[in-house]
Structures are given as C-alpha cells and as structure tokens.
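re: ur question from yesterday

yeah so i grabbed the chain u mentioned. its 260 aa long if i counted rite. heres the sequnce exactly as i have it in my notes:
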Amino acid sequence: MLGFLNITIIDVIDIILVAFLIYQCFRLLKGTSVIGIAIGIVTLYVFWFVVSALNMDLLSSIMEQVLGVGVIALIILFQQEIRKFLFQIGKRSINSRLGKLSRRFLNSNNEVDAGSIEEITQACRRMSETRTGALMVFRRISSMENIIETGDKVDSIINRRLIENIFWKNTPLHDGAMIVDNNRIVAARCTLPISQNLELPPQYGLRHRAAASVTSETDAFAIVVSEETGNISFVVDGTIRTVTSLSELKLSIESAYNEA
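ran it thru and got these structure tokens back, copy pasting raw so excuse formatting
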C-alpha cells in the first residue's frame, strides 16, 4: 500500500506491463502511415478514462460503445502490424535455447551449399556490372507458399546463368522476386508486399522496399541489385545494408543461415 492512493505491488506491475506494451506497439508502428491513427485511438482511450473517472455516465457510455466497436475496426485496420508484432514475439521465443534446438531441426535441410553461394554471388557480380535489377528472397523457416503462388514455379538448381536470364529486363520473369528454398530456385516473378516504413531513405526503390517488407514479416533474408546504381544490398529483419565485396556477400549469406 502506498499512502492514500492504496496502490499495491500488483498495481505497479500492472502499470509497468501496460506501459511496456504501449511502448512496443508504438515502436512497431513508428515510421508507418498508421502512427497518426494509433495516437488518435490512444487519445480517445485517455478521454474515456477521464470522463469515467468524473462519473459522466452518458458520455462515458457513448465512448464505451464507440471504443467497443473500434476494437474490431482496429483488428481489421492493423492486421499487418498485429501480424508483425506477433511474429516478433515468436521470433524472440525461437531465439531462446530451446527454440534454437527446434529451429535447427526444422531448418536442417533448408540452406544453400558452398557451390550455390558461389553461383549466387557471381550472378550478383555480373548483374551489378550490367546494372540489371534483381530481387532474390531466401526462405529459412517461415512459410512462403502464399508468396510463391503469386509467381511462376521454376524448381531448378541454383545456376548463375539462369539467375541472370531470369532478371534480364527483356524476359517475362524479370519483374518480381525470385524465391530460393532448400537449395533450389523454386519460383520467379513473385509479388511481395511493399513496405510502408516512412523511415526508409528515398533513394530506395520498390525492390528495396519489397525486400524490407518481406524480411520484416518473415525470417527470410533477401539480396537486391539496384538497377540505377548497380549496388548490391543484403536485407534481413527489414534492415538494408549495402555490401561492398563478394566475400562480404558470401559471409552474409552463410551467417544468415547459421543464425537460422
């Protein structure tokens, strides 16, 4: 008990947990187009709390009905953000010691060998030199069936000439993402969601934004070759990093699979 406020240790824990949850939600929404809506909703809840504390029964009842219906609207409006939030929670659980053991079991066959990494990096080198835009997504654990279904099935071994041919600008398969799964090219011309993160620098085009989006919503990682600059970017967890050498690219791919 704390003075006349009659606050117990459970109340303190309750406040801390609520504050932490609000902080995590705002951190998740920061930089997106829905942050303004989220602030408006929090303002309404604070207003409802105030009118309830002042015993304004009529206004409190109206606000309660509005916010009750608003919960359903929130689920519809923020479905992508909620999905991302739950994924982040699951991802942290997977990073636990027990999670790592199960992840090793689930991901035992889903990686690329040294020969395939060499083919990928050499294809990236060539496409970088010719300013050929490319977007390659590598599955680790998260299912990507819904994304694969948007493109054309390929099911081929990883080959540098095939990769170059897929992304050559005059081919039907160049526009979209190539998906790599279990040491094979499984699909091309796949459609990815576009990131609404307003904090991404303006020089990043649709390929980079799509790579940031898919790696934020899943545990996949991506490689992007810029059509404008020829720069090669490695994208994981929504973070875009420019690689400066083929050895750095190889190390990034190997490290991504070792962490999975």
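noticed a couple things. The first strand starts at residue 134 and ends at 138. also The chain has ten helices and seven strands.
anyway ttyl
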